[in-house]
Amino acid sequence: MKILIINGPNLNLIGKREPSIYGSTDFETWFAALRRTYAARNVELTYRQSNIEGELIDCIQAADGRYDGVILNAGGYTHTSVAIADAIRAVGVPIVEVHISNIFARENYRQQSLTGAACRGAVTGFGLDSYRLAIESFLLPR
């Protein structure tokens, strides 16, 4: 199984940015360990990050037909991007939205997800383990 993880704006700063919310482990270190864990289960993980909305859309479109699933943390675009939501709806690859923090326990403007409404499901509030839980969702029998 091939799964693409796409992180949006400012998520390249995980480990530095607001560690009380996002933790102190940088994503690349955590991703390397995650990749090793899932390789033993025949799951190939790929990771992309961009601060640019159009590049995130390009990643989503390029994933169609190449991956069995996409895990998307659109960062701040979660709450604002009709264009990313439209890209999710336009592709056939299943997408699970992920958030490190519980967006429903944060500021009012973070509690709405335009992108999540277009996704297969969402995992929010379990720290970096939100990504692991999203991977597990793809491994469930359908």
UniProtKB/TrEMBL annotation:
Catalysed reactions listed for this entry: 3-dehydroquinate = 3-dehydroshikimate + H2O
Marked site (Transition state stabilizer) residue numbers: R17
Keyword field: Amino-acid biosynthesis, Aromatic amino acid biosynthesis, Lyase
Pathway assigned to this chain's UniProt record: Metabolic intermediate biosynthesis; chorismate biosynthesis; chorismate from D-erythrose 4-phosphate and phosphoenolpyruvate: step 3/7
Residue positions binding substrate: N73, H79, D86, I100, S101, R110
EC id: 4.2.1.10
Keyword Cytoplasm: no
Pfam families assigned to the protein according to its UniProt record, in alphabetical order: DHquinase_II (PF01220)
Annotated catalytic residues: Y22, H99
PANTHER family the UniProt entry points to: CATABOLIC 3-DEHYDROQUINASE
Function: Catalyzes a trans-dehydration via an enolate intermediate.
Family classification: Belongs to the type-II 3-dehydroquinase family.
NCBIfam families membership: aroQ, PRK05395.1-2, PRK05395.1-3, PRK05395.1-4
Assembly notes: Homododecamer.
Protein name from the UniProt record: 3-dehydroquinate dehydratase
Origin species: Alistipes inops
Gene it is expressed from: aroQ
